Amino acid sequence: MGQVKAQRHRRTGSLIRMDDDWESFLLKMKLFMVCALLCVAAVAWGKPASTYTDKWDYINVDEILESQRLLKGYVDCLMDRGRCTADGKTLKETMPDALEHECSKCTEKQKESSDKVIRFLINKRPELWKELATKYDPDNVYQQRYKDKIEAVKEH
Question: Mind listing the pLDDT tens digit for each residue in 95-117?
Fold first, then answer.
């Protein structure tokens, strides 16, 4: 039989009797819980997200495109010329993946918004489109891949 010990309760300070078997059991349970949590975390972190966060679905893209100040802020962020808002920073981090995988993790709203932004830049701000394309597609890979889509949005 295990040896009996007395230990003070953390909050009340009263003595609690504990034997070695009970203490060993509690230690094993704690270790089990830590291992279980680590396994759950590893599975969650290791599994790729099926879509990007939907918080961008609620951004008013029209407001950004209509405002020289807001549009300039996002472009400056993407071009490493200025500070990035939290959304700008996330966009900057996400854009290469979205380009590479044809926006496969984008929500429907994000696809609609990106089409709207592309249409606007190509037709209304071609100098910005060219600048961004030079940075994010220096080898013209995506311009070629999406050539039909780009031609389809051009206003003639």
Answer: 899 889 888 999 899 889 888 99
